[in-house]
Amino acid sequence: MSIRIRNSWLFAATLAAPLVLWSADATPAKEIDTQKSTMTVRVFKTGLFSAFGHDHEISAPIRQGSVNETDRSVNLIVDARQMRVMDKDVSEKDRAEIQETMLGPKVLDTAQFPEIRFHSTSAERADERHWTVHGELTLRGKTRPMKVEVNGASGRYRGTAELKQRDFGIEPVSVGGGTVKVKDELRVEFEIVAKP
Predict the structure, then answer these.
(1) Residue 79 contacts by C-beta under 8 Å, 6 or more apart in sequence?
(2) Full residue range of the structural domain in which residue 115 is found
(3) Which residue, of 19, 52, 131, 153, has the greatest Cβ tally within 10 A?
């Protein structure tokens, strides 16, 4: 009986040892430095009189997040209420109106959906500095798959992603009976810096 118990304990210890060693060697996730990290959303114009419209540059500050360099994973949260229209070629009044529309119920509806979240699900490595990261984006209460092209190393990463507003229940804004409107497709550009 005692031999059987001793052997069972030895067997369990043998199985557990690699898990303990793996856990010790695994690199923990690093917190994103939100003061040094940036995210920009680019919205493009279209329509018959698009020459009279404006492309939009939106600052989307990252509120919090983490990066794990070992398994190439990332999680981040943007406070949608803090997103700001940065257009330089419009008046202050027009910028304020664009800002109000963006945060209002027709677009982001930040009163109901204050957070935008992304978490990765897998990563395909092209070379030492380039990856295609697959993940899920939650925006305006809807979660959709998203592909992100990333390059960088040692805690500093740049990348881009594209998404369609209609995938998240947003009808692209138009004016003048649709003669000037924004495209369904948006481009997200980012630079993420991890804390040491």
Answers:
(1) 61, 63, 114, 115
(2) 27-193
(3) 131
Question: How many domains does the structure of the chain reveal?
Answer: 1
Residue 138 lies in a domain: yes
Residue 135 lies in a domain: yes
**What DSSP string describes 110-171?**
TTT--EEEEEEEEEEESSSSEEEEEEEEEETTEEEEEEEEEEEETTEEEEEEEEEGGGGT-P
* pLDDT reported for residue 28: 81
Locate 186 and state its tokens: 């948006």
C-alpha to C-alpha distance for 106 and 141, rounded to whole angstroms: 14
Contacts with 122 (C-beta within 8 Å, 6 or more apart), sequence order: 133, 134
Give the pair of three-digit tokens for residue 18.
Answer: 């690699």
Cβ atoms within 10 Å of 75's Cβ, excluding its own? 16
Tell me the CATH number at 126: 2.40.128.110
Which pLDDT score is estimated for 24?
39
Residues in the chain, pLDDT under 70:
1-26, 47-54, 175-180
